[in-house]
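re the bet — no i am not wrong, look at it urself. input seq straight from the record:
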Amino acid sequence: MTPTLVPGDKVWVNKLLFGARIYKSFDFEDHAPLKCFRIPGIRKIRPGDVVCFNYPLGYDKWTEIEFKINYVYCKRVVGTPGDTVGVKNGITWNNNYSGIIGVLENQLAIQNTPDSILWRTKFMGTMPFTRPMWTMKNFGPLYIPEKGVTIELDSIGRAIYGPVIEYETGSWPDGDVTSHTFQHDYFFAFGDNSLDSNDSRYWGFIPEDFIIGIVGGKKVRNNP
């Protein structure tokens, strides 16, 4: 998240803005599913908000959304339920938001770096890792799942939304699955350090229930 956050920073996480998450089960053993409800909040999460959340691939399977209680990330939201997002020549965009999302200087660094150099980095190719290939320089357009919305699925759609469908139904969609109605809301979040950030560009969607809260207040940087 540099330069917005750097190692050693501390942040306040406001759980009341979006609504605090209340656990219905305190079974946090390995691979135990998250059971919770959310109390009413003051406002919705917006593109540009920095949020704290449980990393959605909690046990690092790369295709399976799982909850892990103390595996927490902090990133900037670029897409909320129902938005369409993407990256064009390094610059992040959202069809429902007209402002800059994130740190423009860092996005321009991607724009101005030759592809031959970017391909030497571990982060050039992004999800869904199919052909045609999306990259950190040109990504999407990608629809962010909204509860109750039905989408049609082809082979690429099954690759993009497969982890979400498996999370909601218990099985990965095969070739016979041609549509899906989302059961939950999801978010998409990037790190501000665009050239070197492990974020939704690579591991995908964040279930609403995994959101802990919106980062707010003053960050405190530890003295050296």
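see?? The two ends are 19 Å apart (CA to CA). told u. also Residues 150 and 181 are 4 Å apart (CA to CA). so pay up
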